[in-house]
Amino acid sequence: MATDAKQRPVYVISVAAELVDMHPQTLRLYERKGLIRPGRSSGKTRLYSERDIDHLREIRRLTQELGVNLAGVEEVMRLQHQLDDLQEEFEAEIARIEDQIREKTRPMGLPAPDARLDPRDRPVYVISIAAELVDMHPQTLRLYERKGLIRPGRSSGKTRLYSERDIDHLREIRRFTQELGVNLAGVEEIMRLRYELEAAHSRMEGRIVSIQQDIQNRMTAWRELPAPDADASE
Hints:
Blueprint: H1 2-7, H2 13-19, H3 24-32, E1 39-40, E2 46-47, H4 50-65, H5 70-102, H6 127-134, H7 138-146, E3 153-154, E4 160-161, H8 164-179, H9 184-223
Antiparallel strand pairs: 1-2, 3-4
């Protein structure tokens, strides 16, 4: 599998540092901060994978090109690691479930995932109420929407409506900017990954529900098959 190859630890620290144009001490610092998670050989030597190299290049882009401070980079990489872990979990779970049914059944259409809306995603607050809840000016919320940091819904009359999840996101944005001093470029990266992580969770849950429902439907169909005719076997 392609993801397995990217995760295989192959580069010693000197080679990894050369590949990303950093000093080995910088890589050790990033590891202590939890920004990177190299593997270890049997002799405890650090070994970096292709994915680690991608992460180091992303850290360099955030710090050197976008001017994101270390607090912002830590949040970005924490979310990126969560995405990586979720992808591995998703692939392993899907492979396990599909292996269970592959030998017994031929492929057939899967039912659509459960599309019920999470109550936290229901758009209910107009912009004035949302701004009051998060102690921001409505114009700030409009700016954040233009930057893609927040994605409010719309009523049939095109009025912005914010959900509980949107309110949580706005409070997180305020924490990053006011408490941690993360610049807007860093916040954009963080929120992009948050949305990607939430979407990945939703896809994973929907896919697993679909496969589990498919298994249940097939088991029901097997149970309803007529019993073999005893007379015909004589």
